[in-house]
Write a structure and sequence with these properties.
single chain; 301 residues; alpha+beta; Alpha-Beta Plaits; 4-stranded antiparallel β-sheet; 10 helices; 6% strand; elongated
């Protein structure tokens, strides 16, 4: 068993050296494609952070002061529900301080200064309002009324912010995903061609191995392992590039004034780690698919 494993790795390394140019091209193409995939994930998470408050068709948020009394909160709730011709009372949601703080940890993930000033005790609670009307003037008029209620700190409206961010998010996602998918297909093709070239260069050895009784899988494994390693190395390079890009972006955002919305585009380190693991698995899969197709199709050389 050990001798077979040693043989597989020895032949894989020999094939790497014989086809160095093609191997490097396949690795770099895989790395660029996976880097785009990873960047797409991070960008989408950043935009998701910006829109975390506005999910579920929410177009208005009534922020309640941290020191508001239960009576004031109840009065605000009743006042919002009274506007039943404009507000969907069945979808009115009250988010307490703990829930608001959890949202803030995502919104200000890249702004540790602002986040350090917030605690579950001093953040405002909030009412998330889904209007029934599509008239922005009417919604703004209603927001002005809510601002005068006792205990209300402020009223935020989605309006143009939501539309611009959603449109930009969709555009970036579509463009980067299409580019990355095209490059992944190219990477599979390059790995396929590399394995095909390696098998063609060793066709006499393969014929001899067949004559002495070697099975097809015994011959295929080194070539399939080569493709898998190519994809895996490409994904490692992509992970390194993604880490560098994220670090540069995070450091750049740190220079902005605290409290600006740009800080929401920073993703937590846990999400970056998860994305890297996905890239590693995807890279190995891409290499395995390309090499498996080539090894199965061109074994009889």
């Amino acid at each position: 068993m050990i001798s077979r494993v040693a043989y597989a790795f020895r032949e894989t390394w020999a094939s790497f050296r014989r086809n160095l140019t093609l191997t490097v091209a396949a690795v770099l193409t895989s790395a660029i494609a996976l880097l785009l995939v990873g960047a797409t994930f991070l960008i989408q998470r950043g935009f998701s952070n910006l829109l975390v408050q506005w999910r579920g068709d929410v177009e208005m948020i009534v922020f309640v002061r941290a020191d508001a009394t239960p009576e004031q909160i109840s009065f605000i709730d009743g006042s919002i529900r009274q506007a039943s011709t404009v507000v969907d009372a069945n979808r009115l949601e009250y988010v307490d301080k703990i829930g608001t703080y959890e949202e803030a940890t995502r919104i200000f993930a890249g702004d540790p200064v602002t986040l350090s000033l917030l605690t579950p005790e001093n953040v405002p609670s909030q009412f998330k309002v889904v209007p029934l009307t599509q008239d922005p003037a009417l919604v703004r008029s209603l927001a002005d009324q809510f601002r005068t209620l006792p205990g209300v700190e402020d009223v935020a409206l989605a309006e143009d912010e939501f539309e611009v961010i959603s449109t930009l998010s969709g555009f970036v996602r579509n463009v980067t995903l299409v580019m990355s998918m095209v490059l992944l297909v190219v990477a599979v093709g390059l790995i396929w061609n590399t394995i095909r070239t390696a098998m063609f260069a060793r066709r006499r050895e393969i014929e001899v191995m067949k004559l002495v009784g070697a099975t097809n899988w015994f011959i295929r494994i080194p070539f399939m392992l080569e493709g898998l390693l190519q994809g895996l190395i490409g994904s490692l390079v992509a992970c390194g590039g993604l880490w560098a890009l994220n670090a540069a972006w995070t450091n750049g955002v740190a220079g902005f004034k605290p409290g600006t919305g740009i800080s929401s585009l920073v993703v937590p380190s846990s999400y970056l780690t998860t994305t890297m693991l996905v890239l590693l698995a995807t890279g190995a899969l891409v290499g395995a698919v390309g090499s498996a197709i080539a090894a199965s199709r061109f074994l009889d050389v």
